[in-house]
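Saturday, quiet lab. Running sequence design on the structure tokens for the scaffold JK sent over.
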């Protein structure tokens, strides 16, 4: 699927905040095609021990151990599945490296003082989060422009991690998709602006779903930001249970794969 992302109103000050990766690069390049060169605030990856302690407080150390094994599996399988990843990139016409025209600004964290200093200096009209840490309330309160988030899942039922995988694992194929929402103090709990649903490709897995979701949502993200720039972005009604998801524990991941064919 090739997104229609022709220029929608000339250069605008759009700032994307991310920790990096292929899916955010896809989105940055799509936004650049629509709005001109993008300011990209790149935060450092969260230290592993900090991440593990924080996650353990939410799920417990036993579940964390199972999730950590799944994370390591995903990392390894990404390396071993480069051919299938390249095929998806060709099929979808994706640019998975941030274009040289975009401006990269490095900060320690989205929650660090240098982030606010950078945002104040850049003066964006819209801030767009795409694969970064949860923003703390005091930081949110200091950003005076609309803040949107691209979430690889349908909210509120698939908040958190691996939204596409969990929809398929639950037999909820109709909710394999992506959401753009306003950012509030919760985890993907902000008011929804737009959602798009599609289906994964044959042979897709938990380590390739994010590429498919990024591909399907490029136009939606462009139009959501355009609406925010024009002051016309309006919440849409969503009626479903609100559930925060994490990585599946390795034993659950293997069981779902064997019994349901969802990998």
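Result came back. Writing it out in full:
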């Amino acid at each position: 699927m090739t997104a229609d992302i022709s220029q929608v109103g000339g250069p605008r000050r759009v700032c994307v905040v991310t920790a990096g990766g292929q899916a955010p690069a896809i989105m940055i390049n799509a936004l650049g095609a629509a709005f001109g060169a993008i300011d990209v605030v790149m935060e450092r990856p969260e230290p592993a021990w900090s991440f593990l302690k924080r996650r353990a407080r939410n799920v417990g150390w036993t579940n964390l151990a199972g999730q950590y094994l799944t994370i390591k599996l995903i990392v390894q399988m990404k390396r071993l599945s480069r051919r299938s990843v390249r095929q998806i990139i060709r099929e979808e016409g994706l640019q998975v490296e941030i274009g040289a025209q975009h401006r990269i600004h490095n900060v320690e964290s989205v929650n660090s003082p240098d982030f606010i200093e950078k945002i104040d200096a850049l003066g964006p009209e819209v801030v767009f989060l795409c694969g970064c840490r949860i923003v703390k309330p005091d930081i949110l309160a200091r950003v005076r422009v609309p803040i949107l988030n691209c979430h690889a899942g349908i909210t509120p039922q698939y908040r958190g991690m691996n939204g596409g995988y969990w929809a398929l694992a639950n037999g909820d194929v109709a909710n394999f998709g992506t959401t753009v929402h306003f950012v509030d103090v919760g985890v993907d709990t902000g008011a929804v602006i737009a959602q798009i649903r599609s289906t994964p490709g044959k042979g897709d897995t938990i380590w390739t779903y994010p590429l498919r979701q990024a591909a399907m949502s490029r136009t939606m993200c462009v139009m959501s930001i355009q609406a925010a720039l024009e002051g016309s972005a309006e919440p849409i009604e969503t009626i479903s249970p609100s559930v925060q998801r994490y990585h599946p524990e390795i034993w659950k991941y293997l069981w779902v794969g064997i019994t349901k064919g969802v990998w």
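Notes for JK: The chain is about 40% helix and 15% strand. The two ends are 22 Å apart (CA to CA). Ask whether to fix the surface positions before the next round.
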